Amino acid sequence: MRKPRLVAWTAGPLTLALVLSACGGGGNTNTNTSTAPNAGSGNPNGAISIYGTEPETNMLPANATDAGSAKMQEGLYSKLVGFKPEDGATYNEVADSITTTDSKVWTIKLKKGFKFHDGTEVKAKNFVDAWNWGANGKNSQLAASFFSDIQGYNEIHPKDPDGADGPQKAPDPTVDKMSGLKVIDDLTFEVTLNGPFSVFPSKIGYHPFSPLPDKFFTMSPDEFAKNPIGNGPLKFVSRTPNVDIKLTRFDEYSGAKKVNFKDLTIRIYSSQEAAYKDLLSDNLDFMEALPPSAKAGGKFEKDLGDQVLRANLLSISALAVPTYVPAYQNPNVRKAISMAINREQITKTVLNNTYVPADGLVPEGIEGYEKGACGEACVYDPAKAKALWDTTGFQGKVTIMSNADGGRKEPLEAACNSIKNALGVECEFLPATNFGQFRQVVNSSKLTGLGRSDWSADYPSIENFLVPIVKTGGSSNDARYSNAEVDRLLDQASTTADKAASIKLYQQAAKLAVADLPKIPTWVEKGIGARSKKLTAAQLNFRRQLEYSSVVVK
């Protein structure tokens, strides 16, 4: 039994309204460097504080995949490629060039001069060793499956014989290196994939593909996690659980994402309301999402004026339906519940038009999005829902579990009421104390009913909204869903060199998966946050994160 990666995100703000264009995850073989927006003038010795949620894990790169961790990861590590905040297009960050002739074998050359925070040089082996460690099944990293495209992954991460929830344990690997990774020289390495994969040069911009310093391999992972060493624009200072995470500028950083402030504090809140009060009093500088009470009647616009931050985001909100709970294994149960949720009403009233109804597993703005992919199952129809429900023989009550902070409680309580009214079944919202506690329930396969399972793009590709979510054993397959035909299509798509043909295969897989409703799509956030008066500039990127290099402090 091996547990998969968690899913989560929180919203992120910006000071300039951005419209994200459709952005696929196609190949990037150029050698050019693109920088994030210039922060301009300001106080380079200033300090900022941003809203945060308690991370679930020790925050090693291949383990730290929740939103609370991502805010630290984004500052602490620089990857081979970065993403332009406005459209998700890739540019070379640590990589000097990424080249291929067949989309299967890739040669990656690094820029000289990148350093880790301990002063050691970033070399090819730091990427290769980190990827091998993250993929190794015995290390049980939540994002290990993101390395599955690399040749040799199945040997270093043997298949669990009875799945993540079965009593049997996966066998230990007999190798500690993937055959598809080869160091050529200090600044060059080669990656051989299982087949042609056009998304690869975008995927490696995700946090699990960060490099690790030599020191990591001389100590225990938990010890390293207490004082991590990265290669990004910010270096680690301290972490106090349930209080804050502190970072400070790394002045020897040589990359494109230099920051124009000195210190960053990620303040951990259990209540968005408390954070919003701090924001209004300028005791907090940045929130990526506002509480429902602030959104009601457009109150936030009166409160904040030009401090309001808007963006279109690449994300989906959904409810995972655990296939390991017998009561929810009937597909008609899942479909009836989905049809009983009044998405239009909830997004207009409870969410005050800051969300729109979701109509599939892939959001608009991702290349390959198909309008209405979910069909009638995502359209509110209480009469049809009740008729279908009455055929299921469902016993007991429907439950929806989520962390109650971050503005999650109100819309999910409204969804419960909608289900109750339409189906005539008792529905209960089960709040967890915080996000970390909630994710422990999900990752331990202990959901007793539906569970919030939101997703924001790690990189702008349709692949990212399917493979981790609905593939058997996927790192964020909260439902523990398995469909052999979906898996076959995803595998075929992920080894098809032609991008257009690959997207068509992903679309076929998406249609099959959403028809099974292992995740019930609910709504898509427009993206509304705010800054304090202390910040004169800030920007939200497509992953719902603050683009640190865009911040200007008075």
From TrEMBL:
Keywords linked to the UniProt accession: Signal
One Gene Ontology term of the molecular function aspect: peptide transmembrane transporter activity
Residue span, Solute-binding protein family domain: 93-476
Any single Gene Ontology cellular-component annotation: periplasmic space
Pfam families: SBP_bac_5
InterPro entries per UniProt: Peptide/Ni-bd, SBP_5, SBP_5_dom
GO biological process: peptide transport
CDD domains assigned: PBP2_NikA_DppA_OppA_like (cd00995)
Signal peptide segment: 1-24
Protein name: Oligopeptide transport system substrate-binding protein
Species name: Kibdelosporangium aridum
